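Field reference: sequence -> structure
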Amino acid sequence: MLSKRFTKAFRRVSERTKANLPSTEKNYDPFQDDYELEDSGYGSYQRMEYQSSQDYPEKPTALVSPQESVKQLEATPLRRSPTVTPRNSGNFVRTMRLLSKQRKEGPQEHDTFDIFFPEQSICRARAIYFTTRIKTHFPVVIPTKTYVGEDPKTLDKLYHTIVDRFYTYSYVNSFMPNGEKRESILAKFEYEMQAFNPKYLEFKGGREAIFAVHYALNATFGDSLEVADKVALVQVARECIENCLESEERLNDTERQCMYNFHKLMSGQEWPDPNLLI
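Structure field:
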């Protein structure tokens, strides 16, 4: 008797539960992965309708385990990150590699000379450095009356004379032993520079420009070059020398030597050993 009552009560509860559940015959979709389950108040699941691609939820970010993040932060001693160099520094890097290669091949004649006469090596490299910088600022053709400024041999003579005068100026002022000969040479230098323009000597690079460039212009072209053109070229050289001196002040001895060699090789010209030109 008790079992029959229990069976009838269970059937009534089942029928009420089925009546409250929504019908799934029409809404049934076999691809259940396309549904997003959402917890509703009455315990059923409804399908979310997306109108456009912008309504879709964002893709969840993959979780990273703490062990992997620690490994990523650890520095790998065997791998080295590439060094990014500016584009305009490629010529300098290639020049330094070329110098290193030449050193490995063996000592040259100039290397042996530099060991015994380091002061002359410094004066020579500095003179070529100044001249190469001035050459890049000078016009390709020097305007003269007789068109001699268009002759490549004459222009080579001009720049070789400038190198000799720069070499003489550095050697006499920095490395020549004190004595009557040095004093007489310095007095002659001072007279030549004062004859050009005394006020011009107050500017940085003025002495070097008058001593080397003005002398070379007179020795190479003479009267075929107008005085106004000479003054203009000396002014261009003075400004260039001023920049060279400022560059030297920011570098140490080794860096200056690298700078001298770099500009010498980039000039693309063979520079003979300078001579004292008093």
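Note: The longest helix spans residues 152-174.
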